Amino acid sequence: MLEVNSVSKDYKEFKLRDITFDVREGEHFIILGPSGAGKTVLLEVIAGIIEPDSGRVYLNGEDVTDLPPEKRGLAYIPQNYALFPHMSVFDNIAFGLRLRKLPKAEVERKVREIAEVLDIGHLLGRKPKTLSGGESQRVAIARALVVEPPLILMDEPFANLDVQTRSRLINEMKRWRKELGFTALHVTHSFEEAVSLGDRVGVMLNGRLVQVGSVREVFSRPASEDVARFLGFENIIEGTANGRVLRANGVEIELPVEVHGRIRVGLRPEDIILSLEPLRSSARNEFKAVVDSVEELGPLVRVHLFVGGLHLRAFITRSSMLEMGIRPGKEVYASFKASALHVF
Amino acid sequence: MLEVNSVSKDYKEFKLRDITFDVREGEHFIILGPSGAGKTVLLEVIAGIIEPDSGRVYLNGEDVTDLPPEKRGLAYIPQNYALFPHMSVFDNIAFGLRLRKLPKAEVERKVREIAEVLDIGHLLGRKPKTLSGGESQRVAIARALVVEPPLILMDEPFANLDVQTRSRLINEMKRWRKELGFTALHVTHSFEEAVSLGDRVGVMLNGRLVQVGSVREVFSRPASEDVARFLGFENIIEGTANGRVLRANGVEIELPVEVHGRIRVGLRPEDIILSLEPLRSSARNEFKAVVDSVEELGPLVRVHLFVGGLHLRAFITRSSMLEMGIRPGKEVYASFKASALHVF
Amino acid sequence: DYTLYLFATIGSFLVVYIALPLVVIFLKQAADLRMLIKTLHDPLVIESLRNSLLTATATALIALLFGVPLGYVLARKEFPGKSLVQALVDVPIVIPHSVVGIMLLVTFSNAILDSYTGIIAAMLFVSAPFTINAARDGFLAVDEKLEQVARTLGASRLRAFSSIALPMAFPAIASGAIMTWARAISEVGAILIVAYYPKTAQVLVMEYFNNYGLRASRPISVILVAMSLAIFVLLR
Amino acid sequence: DYTLYLFATIGSFLVVYIALPLVVIFLKQAADLRMLIKTLHDPLVIESLRNSLLTATATALIALLFGVPLGYVLARKEFPGKSLVQALVDVPIVIPHSVVGIMLLVTFSNAILDSYTGIIAAMLFVSAPFTINAARDGFLAVDEKLEQVARTLGASRLRAFSSIALPMAFPAIASGAIMTWARAISEVGAILIVAYYPKTAQVLVMEYFNNYGLRASRPISVILVAMSLAIFVLLR
Q1: ipTM of the predicted structure?
Q2: C-alpha–C-alpha distance, residues A30 and C7, integer Å
Q3: Spatial distance between the Cα atoms of C58 and B174, rounded to a whole number of angstroms
Q4: pLDDT per residue over C54-97, tens digit each?
Q5: C224 CB near a chain D CB, below 8 Å?
Q6: What region, left, alpha or beta, does residue B325 occupy, with left being phi > 0 and alpha being psi -120 to 50 degrees?
Q7: Chain B residues with beta carbon closer than 8 angstroms to that of A270
Q8: Are A270 and B294 an interchain contact pair (Cβ–Cβ within 8 Å)?
Q9: What's A232-343's CATH class?
Q10: A2-228 domain in CATH 3.40.50.620?
Q11: Domain positions in chain B
Q12: Which residues in chain A are contacts of C162 at CB distance < 8 A?
């Protein structure tokens, strides 16, 4: 129903490069990417707020690229919700209906109906600034859905919410979609949202849509090194494979499969185990390593290691760091299972 | 050499409450606490920038509480370094010496000497805004040390640096202290800095200095539940102990030691293992749990669980979350060793 | 802290210098209420006050009519020469007031000489920047996303402006209009050249001073100061 | 986007209204260079220009002397009545210029009448706010931490002010002083009341206009506009 055809755009520090994908009727399509990937720009191009430098946008087969936003009828929910602060919640939700010149009773009925579904009936008389984050998000969704748009565009809809509200809203979002049957295009950097809500996922990196597929497909078979890195394979090791052995910077690594020639493998930092004594388990790759630096990430610590000439990153918890006395210059043993290696 | 005696102060949203501690000659004393604990206010009280509401500050036995900063002679390095942007690096470092009316040749010699030690001799002609973060920090330290202060006060000295620079500077800081022999009071939220640099550590929470001791002492024997929580024991379970069994909200937990009566135990979220099937290992506490919500923290995920009426937090990696399909409502098994429990 | 006290002492000279004349003129007039009451019954004074109020109000309305759209364009649109336009808007502040009058006469000659139009023309030139800048800042403070969302909900650009941007920027625009009004009614130099007649209160102050001296011009001054201060308090 | 074009069209009225007189007066004068040259040799004109420049410069210096310490105190210190002082500083902007003259005469009477002191008094009252506000904003933009660190290194508060705060806020203070200078030289109404003599250029424009008409006053106007615009360009 929505077709984006090779859209490119340079906008401030963001770039879109040759974006092509489609959203099917009734689908919840998620565009997953780190912040700065250009996700918001893409949504605004689709909504008609930004004009693309090249490429076309089709809605139900019709070319809408040159139409202003008000002629497209796509509901857009920006990250900050953009509730109209000088209007009551009721007037916010009724805004689109009144523009459509619906009779007053009809407006009243539709607003109350959607407010019922979204469980915000008791908020209709309030001003937006008195609402909590979760309530604001519900109102923004109600305001968008009440005009029954063919497609609803959501920009990081759950990013500004606390963890409890967020989990609740993600669950309810599934119910609303069942009840109201809308189609959604939703951009986010959250893996959780992609897993919980996405029928299909597109991974966006540096302004390019690099992989589109079902959630499981994308997470288990990253199409490229960049996708793998974004999905958490922070260690990418390049070397020459000969059967089940990879030689990289003078280090010999056991592979999970037989390969030959120049290859790259990915390894998640959480799959590397650090110990002060060798673990002596036959199934593992085990190496002597020197700690280069450590990087605190809240309760987790990223340890940068050198195994010979190979730079590896490993995650350990802060308490293990303290217990093992890990600090720059310390010698440790790093080990990982061959099966943790992902061959591209 | 520095004695802080029951200092209290209300300043903006920060509060200091009855802070008492001392720093010994030649020591590197670290005050460790989360942001907002009032660490900067404490440093500024000691530097003479903020007047305390009550309490006294003694320097080498002399009461300096009512002296202005210029009469105390304590060097202060704020978090943003506060280099004078309109002066060259040389003039920045020479600032304190010139105020002391040293002869020009003497100023020149001392600046070049300290610049040599701190490896910034090649930067003397530059303006501060052309420096990298690490270079700025070295200049700030040089400017403070060149006047040979009895005590140097540092506010989060490594917080704004990238991980490599930070590790290098932490190591060099040890060398500088050996070469120049200064005494340092250093506030930070970083466990890494406390472990690497601290001779002694004071833990500061909500404006109170709640525990002072050697690093190992503080981390292995938190004095209170709050310190434990700050040090990463996110799960605090309250219940009635009877020998080696703790009953809490209807759940029975095996304890590492014999205790009796109403107690609290701490458990780090990284010590809880989640699995889809029971692990059946006799040494473990193992419970059926329901996922309440998940919270993404970069590569790590905090999972909120309910075990009966007990709310537990566990850390797992993002890839485990995806592999196990963990999402709100899912049933999992949570297990942890009795030895992971810390009885207060 | 001696330095700050020293600075406060030096600085208080200017504070006193501004406050003193305000206080003194009210006190002296309070000792001469008869003259104030007499002035309030002087038909020339009433007429001139009416003229001042009318022309200042007309000026503020004209500044609103043209300045609000201009402020909106400056807030929302990038275009070549924008910084020139921005600079031009601030130029009237630095031009001597008598010269403003000469410039306007040179440009519009008899069309504005000695008429209400002339008074308004002089006032508009010196005071319009306040409305333009206030409107621009007001619109800049309205998140453009709000208008964009209104448009995705079906509002035209004009409709999004009138239902979202305008009501939200209204307080800023109103305060700009009040500043414009106050600056307009404070103008003397340009009006003296362009339109000595019809007589405005601020010109009458000068005429009474020249013809009858300080005592005669003081009551009108007090009335004008009171008005200006009232407006100023309203603004804060 | 039709709405924005419509707004730009409406808004351009004010842009043209401000730009047109500036352009026209230069063009008309360019067609009458003889008169411009004659004016440049008129000793009265030279004398009045000298008076204007001298008094405006003196005003700017006085504003600096007292306004910089005041701005520093307003930027660094909380004290009861601070918001009243802040408001008071802005009051001169809204008071009619002729009334400013009356207020000053009522307060200082003969001490300022028809003297350089009077011209400067009038100029200072209306223009000092620019220096005070610019200094305050300039000092606010200097991180107080810099001064605090200077003090821990042994500098007294005064020394920290003079070696850190003052040099760093200098650009802001300088631009405030230039605005003060420009506002001072633009003043007419208050000067007409307080000090018709010694004659300033902005008053002479008015006198020539009254005595000899538009053609005679135009060249001085052009010179003053050129000066003001030069200052304005310098400021940006």
Answers
A1: 0.82
A2: 61
A3: 74
A4: 999 999 999 999 999 999 999 999 999 999 999 999 999 889 99
A5: yes
A6: left
A7: 299, 317, 319-320
A8: no
A9: mainly beta
A10: no
A11: 2-228, 232-343
A12: none
